[in-house]
């Protein structure tokens, strides 16, 4: 069975490294993406946030949040999304795609629940169609 996770991370982030280690230990195959150089548009990024409150879209450890430059609890969705798009370090990470679900942040219980729903069997490959068993001419 394949457990495929698209994992948007901040490269070299210790927390993201631990999260990937947990996923791999549970049998997941991870496709890593750099969150700081993502190619997501606003609408797609918004789908990762689901029903979360705007304040939960933000990484509380981001420097601008920690030093009080940005106060997520004062932002509406539109203003929050503008900030996240212009400064991806603010995005709570990781962003993950598992099956057809998108997640923001690493809630171990939620990740486990989603993985249980989206474990897919290994796709069957017809080797004859791929030409790997072609007849040899002698």
From TrEMBL:
What Pfam families does this protein map onto? ArsC
The entry's family comment says: Belongs to the ArsC family.
Which InterPro entries does the UniProt record give?
Arsenate_reductase-like, Nase-assoc, Thioredoxin-like_sf
Q: Which species expresses this protein natively?
A: Sulfuricurvum kujiense (strain ATCC BAA-921 / DSM 16994 / JCM 11577 / YK-1)
Lineage summary: Bacteria, Pseudomonadati, Campylobacterota, Epsilonproteobacteria, Campylobacterales
Name the domain of life this protein comes from: Bacteria
Output this protein's name.
Nitrogenase-associated protein
